[in-house]
Design goal:
transmembrane helix, ABC_transp_perm/SBD, about 0% strand, single chain, MetI-like fold, transport
Length: about 210
């Protein structure tokens, strides 16, 4: 372990960490926003549930490197564009979050939903004021898995020239320099832990009752 290399390259490590984070948070947020309505539809309409969940889950079987190369041909971006990584990570996030969201809505007792309707809640009010808050803990738990997966997979983008902590892996292997590889690994783990703690904090702020009942 070359500690002098770490100290002399600390600013670059921070720069790559920030770049990695900026590639991670948009797809995590987009996956949540898109998966919420899709997951609710899968929960509400049982006849199409398996189709919806199956199609979304199938996205995850596409190799990430192949997707990074295919997307520029489909959407017309540069191979080096970070947009390719963000779109790919959003698709992978959907593959995980749709099922998690549908399962979370399934945990809402039917009696509670019926009681809300009897009290005069409109269908939209029932979803946002009753079902979504009760399904929230499961949705957040699923998003934590999406977060860890996204931060891990983003490193693959370094193979097509998109700068992130994964750049330390590719450079380290090319130079046979273990210190750089270890720095990339530790940085990726720390970033994943930071995102996870942030999601836990958001969950506690938005869903304080979940902590009291757990």
């Amino acid at each position: 372990m070359k500690w002098d290399w770490l100290s002399s390259n600390f600013s670059r490590l921070v720069e790559l960490g920030i770049a990695h984070a900026n590639l991670a948070w948009p797809p995590i947020l987009l996956a949540l926003l898109v998966a919420l309505p899709i997951g609710w539809v899968a929960h509400r309409y049982r006849r199409i549930r398996e189709i919806v969940v199956g199609l979304s889950s199938a996205l995850y079987i596409i190799p990430s490197l192949a997707l990074f190369i295919l997307l520029p041909l489909v959407i017309g971006t540069s191979v080096l564009s970070s947009l390719n990584v963000i779109i790919a990570m959003t698709l992978y996030g959907l593959a995980l979050q749709v099922r998690s969201t549908a399962d979370s809505f399934d945990t809402v007792p039917a009696a509670v939903a019926s009681a809300a309707t009897a009290m005069g809640y409109s269908p939209l009010q029932r979803v946002f004021q009753v079902e979504l808050p009760l399904a929230g803990p499961g949705i957040i738990a699923g998003l934590r898995v999406v977060s860890a997966s996204t931060i891990s997979l983003i490193s693959v983008g370094a193979l097509v020239g998109v700068h992130s902590l994964g750049t330390l892996f590719t450079e380290g292997f090319q130079r046979n320099f273990p210190t750089q590889i270890i720095a990339g690994f530790v940085g990726t783990v720390l970033l994943a832990v930071l995102f996870d703690l942030l999601l836990v904090l958001i969950g506690r702020v938005l869903l304080p009752w979940a902590r009291k009942t757990s």
